[in-house]
């Protein structure tokens, strides 16, 4: 994280403190558009391109690697378009521009990553004039230069950005010179673009042919992009130090040298005993975690029965089945209900959860299903019990107030007495299960009440006044 929590990625170098890093040869390039700031360094792959340019044997042997670099260059270019659109900032430490073949049919250049067109002109010198004081510290380490920057814009050279805006707006590139040589050729540049509204093709023609005339109308300006800084390579510090300088100066992240491999073998007095103590504590923590995992599993097994108090639909039906299994009953699925059987008794069970009273219609289908089940299985109606498990007012708390209300509609209660149907609240079932676990009631007592009940059925004796 950079200044004010901004996300920073370095592309082409690793080992920098407080930022993310990736290489051009990686097979899994991160989403650059998800960052606020990107620092670009192409020096890590430029020797490969140079070698491929002059040595066909090397090129053929490394064609897959070169293609991956080319693919990553195109990917980064696409993502940087998004980063500029979101007013992100890009710092690029550059080299002279050159092309290289990566196969018999394709080529690549070391600025292929840039969404804004840039050229370089080979020339050597030492004189520099820094125009932007913000970059003065960086240019102190540029003691000589081997090229200067040049820009030649036309509309086709901005295709990546124009395509991003679906060619609905005009992209007007702008430039600020950071440093120049003695005859005013830029040694460092900041490029950005303005996005202008274009109402018809005639405006677009004027914008392309006479941009200075067209862009006088500031009312056409829609937005301004982020900035891409093109910087020459430093000569008195290496590329990695130059990147660290940018991270420190512009992002406010002090850079530390990563510990070299094997340094852990050097111990400070007292460090060894602390390491042993730390290792022992880790072992204890792992042991406690294993114990905690077992406790958590047992807690989950217990707390799942609370679903009887608030669930509806399939989850409520499943926890009702599990409760009856815990009470020693057998459960078999039916078409719309489930069949409860124990000690030669059978019941067809319907489960309903509502945020109000359980309605008459909730029991009508159960009565029909009971008759159908008896006929299909050649049983007398008296051999098949109907049980409606209802969770009325399921989201109301406290529970004590909920049970004072009419859980089942009056017409449903009357129908239940005719249909040999037990109406049982899932709150009642929860309380009965808890009493069973505590040894306060027997499983047989609960089952007998369930199968003998008609109308509103209690599975426990009411508390004594």
Please characterize this protein's 3D structure.
By secondary structure, the chain is α/β, with parallel strands linked by helices. The chain has two domains: 3-251, no CATH class; 306-456, Restriction Endonuclease (3-Layer(aba) Sandwich). The protein is built from 15 helices and 19 strands. The protein has helices at 46-54, 56-61, 63-85, 136-139, 159-164, 201-209, 211-214, 239-251, 271-303, 313-326, 360-376, 399-402, 410-418, 426-437, 443-452; strands spanning 8-11, 20-22, 37-41, 89-93, 99-101, 107-109, 119-125, 129-130, 145-150, 169-180, 186-197, 221-224, 227-231, 330-333, 338-342, 345-353, 384-391, 421-425, 455-456. The strands form four sheets. Strands 1, 2, 3, 4, 8, 10, 11, 12 and 13 form a nine-stranded mixed beta sheet that branches. A six-stranded mixed beta sheet has the order 14-15-16-17-18-19, with helices on both faces. Strand 16 (345-353), helix 11 (360-376) and strand 17 form a beta-alpha-beta unit.
């Amino acid at each position: 994280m950079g200044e004010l929590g901004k996300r920073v990625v370095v592309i082409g170098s690793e080992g920098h403190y407080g930022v993310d890093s990736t290489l051009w040869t990686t097979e899994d390039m991160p989403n650059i558009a998800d960052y606020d700031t990107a620092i670009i360094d192409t020096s890590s792959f430029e020797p490969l391109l140079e070698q491929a340019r002059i040595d066909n044997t090397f090129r053929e042997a490394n064609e897959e690697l070169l293609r991956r670099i080319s693919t990553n260059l195109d990917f980064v270019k696409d993502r940087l378009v998004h980063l500029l659109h979101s007013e992100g900032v890009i710092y690029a430490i550059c080299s002279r521009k050159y092309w290289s073949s990566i196969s018999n049919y394709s080529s690549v250049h070391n600025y292929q990553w840039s969404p804004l067109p840039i050229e370089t002109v080979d020339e050597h010198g030492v004189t520099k004039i820094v125009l932007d004081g913000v970059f003065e510290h960086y240019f102190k380490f540029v003691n000589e230069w081997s090229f200067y920057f040049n820009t030649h814009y036309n509309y086709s050279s901005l295709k990546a950005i124009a395509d991003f805006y679906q060619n609905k707006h005009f992209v007007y590139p702008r430039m600020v010179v950071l440093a120049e040589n003695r005859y005013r050729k830029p040694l460092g540049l900041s490029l950005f673009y303005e996005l202008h509204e274009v109402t018809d093709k005639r405006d677009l023609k004027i914008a392309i042919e006479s941009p200075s005339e067209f862009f006088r109308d500031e009312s056409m300006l829609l937005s301004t992009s982020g900035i891409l800084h093109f910087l020459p390579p430093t000569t008195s510090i290496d590329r990695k130090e130059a990147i660290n300088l940018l991270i420190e100066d512009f992002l406010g992240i002090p850079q530390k040298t990563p510990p070299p491999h094997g340094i852990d073998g050097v111990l400070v007095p007292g460090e060894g005993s602390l390491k042993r103590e730390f290792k022992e504590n880790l072992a204890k923590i792992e042991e406690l975690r294993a114990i905690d995992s077992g406790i958590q599993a047992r807690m989950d097994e217990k707390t799942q029965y609370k679903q009887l108090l608030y669930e509806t639909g399939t989850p409520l039906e499943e926890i009702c089945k599990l409760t009856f299994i815990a009470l020693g009953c057998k459960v078999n699925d039916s078409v719309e209900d489930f069949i409860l059987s124990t000690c030669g008794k059978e019941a067809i069970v319907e489960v309903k959860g509502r945020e109000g009273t359980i309605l008459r219609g909730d029991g009508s289908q159960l009565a029909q299903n009971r008759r159908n089940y008896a006929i299909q299985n050649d049983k007398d109606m008296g051999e098949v019990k109907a049980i409606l498990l209802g969770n009325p007012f399921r989201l109301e708390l406290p529970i004590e107030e909920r049970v004072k209300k009419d859980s089942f509609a009056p017409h449903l209660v009357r129908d239940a007495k005719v249909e040999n149907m037990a109406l049982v609240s899932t709150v009642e079932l929860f309380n009965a299960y808890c009493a069973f676990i505590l040894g306060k009631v027997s499983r047989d007592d609960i089952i007998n009440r369930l199968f003998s009940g008609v109308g509103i059925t209690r599975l426990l004796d009411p508390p004594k006044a």
